[in-house]
Amino acid sequence: MNAPIIDPLQGDFPEVIEEYLEHGIMKCIAFNRRGTLLAAGCADGTCIIWDFETRGIAKELQDKDCNAAITSVCWSKYGHRILVSASDKSLILWDVLSGEKIARTTLEQTVLQARLHPGSSTPSLCLACPFSSAPMIVDIISGTTTVLPVLISEAGNGIAPNARSKTPDGSTTYSPSTACFNKFGDLVYTGNSKGEILIIDHEKVQVRALVPVSSGSIIRNIVFSRNGQYLLTNTNDRMIRIYENLLPMKDAHKVLDELHETLDEADEVEKLKAAGTKCLSLVQEFQDSINRIQWKAPCFSGDGEWVISGSASRGEHKIYIWDRAGHLVKILEGPKEALMDLAWHPVHPLIVSVSLTGLVYIWAKDYTENWSAFAPDFKELEENEEYVEREDEFDLMPETEKVKESDVNEDDPVDILNVEKDSAFSDSDMSQEELCFLPAIPCPEVPEQQEKCVGSSSKLPDGNQSESPLSVEAGQNGHAANNASSPLEAMENSVAGETEGTRLKRRRRPSEKGLELQAEKTKKPSKTMKPSAFATQYIVGDDSGWNTEVDYYAWLEGKTFYVGDVLVFSYVKTDHNVAMVDASGYNNCNADSNYGLYDTGYDTFTLTTPGDVYFICTKAGSLCTRGWSSNLLICFLFGFSSRCRAVFSYVKGDHNVAMVDVAGCNNCNADSNYGVYDTGYDVFTLTAPGDVYFICTYHCDYADQKLKVTVQPSP
């Protein structure tokens, strides 16, 4: 895209999905300073660098000691280094051009976000925000760490203790916090769980100013604009706030030192708040007052004129765009996949988003042809017109034709090495040459290996901008209405089933025969071999059929099922259906893993192999209601009458489960808990209708890890 010929009358924000990038399962993204390279962290521990001009892979960085999912990627200022954090608690610093690992260090906690110091051309310092501890400054070369304060001390000395909370076993954990450098890295802006922005001199490890957020809600994200003039916060009250930075771009810490000398407040906390009023000024607030959406990955546009954020709701890929005055100008709707990460191109009106399935979508403007911009006398025709030629239109008059002489010296060599300086970049200091492009390595075409392309960039078909290229095709004859597996399972299966570097395959809906073969692998009642001539047909629920009024545990008693037997599900077509799921889907009342969804009103299943098979109904108005955040799935279990089980499976030590009341759920407060469990596999039997609330005491505040289960009475 050529910036000088962009129509200035069109809005400088994207409108449609132009294409998508595909390589494994990408989790997070980051542009270099000029937007010519895009780094993407993958679930297998690799960092892919895309050439954003050609949309091809320019470099692949992988440490043999790291095969855990990448949580964040960050470029150095001039693009020569890149920092990668992974879920195995490691930080790796890479040399981009050579592809060599400069240093690797391991922390005590998984790093959610890591940012290189912006003031150095070859930085070794970074700001790390662990998932369950206070932010810290890390020297990646030496491995030394300096923990930053996240709360103001009671003594009022400006050196704050770390935020801690008690766990059920009496140990201490940190309240998660977010942080970022200012433009030149002399100050760190930290957001804490009390809704305060702390401005910290990280060299002195001292709080220099405090800015309270009006709501006092937990601060989830802090982001500076590229020019450093504006700061953005995303808080737990579902509101994005924009602040104007009142400090100078350079030597801001010196200005704060001088400011402290002029303040005469007796109380140190009030002195810090007074200093905060000289540092940040609230400009605008953004929220969705109707849907009350929680925001994810908010950021500024490259020029700071636009603010974007993704919806944190599961199952939707929506991007909201506001101007800085607070007006919502556009909502971009993508495929029905959760949004994981988001980035605006530093120069062009392009947005790049990462979906739950690991695809990277590129959003661009929907340009309309404007030929009059190149030929002012060009006239556009709405319909065919007969053209009448002028009498002298094509007459040759060589005596009047004058060739305008060019001032360009054709003998001068053409400069193809130097890059023209772009005024769109805010930085004026260029102490080091930027790394804008990587040398391309041609990949020979091997016909028999076309299906194992290491990465691809694909155009989306016209008229179907919102569909995912990984969407499973619909079943036939009304069957198999849901996906064959959840997006998470699809990713796990893809990674496990393919070799390194192979692309993520499109998952297709199996045929009806395939569905039968899949379904016959498992069966809830035990089965033994039996000749087909003696096969028995069972109507599930007998005369009552498949509905919520039958005790299927009682119905199963005394029955022995054999291979060749037939299960018949008879029900009112509009009231129920039958979904065949795996054990996890049965235990969790979750239809994402279904092998087929049937709704004819009379469905039969032939048992051809020994094993277990599981069925649930996904229609609303049944016994078990399972909710997670804003999503709700209502179903009832085969072999289930008046009891519902909630099963929590997690990594022991990283999470736990606390049963709380409604106030504890809304406020992420475990004081009202009825029990805290941390076995890694906790099962709760819900015996009475009503609402039950669960939270994780480690991550409820920061990651909104909470669950509401509604058990409905039998109709």
Automatic annotation (TrEMBL):
WD repeat positions: 26-60, 70-104
InterPro entries: Cupredoxin (IPR008972), Phytocyanin_dom (IPR003245), RBBP5/Swd1 (IPR037850), WD40/YVTN_repeat-like_dom_sf (IPR015943), WD40_repeat_CS (IPR019775), WD40_repeat_dom_sf (IPR036322), WD40_rpt (IPR001680)
Subcellular location: Nucleus
Domain Phytocyanin span(s) in chain numbering: 536-642, 647-713
Compositional bias segments (type: Basic and acidic residues): 511-523
Protein name per the record: Phytocyanin domain-containing protein
GO cellular component terms, semicolon-separated: Set1C/COMPASS complex
Pfam family, one: WD40
Gene Ontology molecular function, alphabetical: electron transfer activity
PANTHER family: RETINOBLASTOMA-BINDING PROTEIN 5 (PTHR44040)
Keywords of the record: Disulfide bond, Glycoprotein, Nucleus, Repeat, WD repeat
UniProt-listed SUPFAM superfamilies: Cupredoxins (SSF49503), WD40 repeat-like (SSF50978)
Biased composition (Polar residues): 455-469
Lineage: Eukaryota, Viridiplantae, Streptophyta, Embryophyta, Tracheophyta
Source species of the chain: Punica granatum (Pomegranate)
Location of region: Disordered: 449-526
Superkingdom to which the source organism belongs: Eukaryota
Signal sequence interval, chain numbering: none
Primary localization class, coarse: nucleus
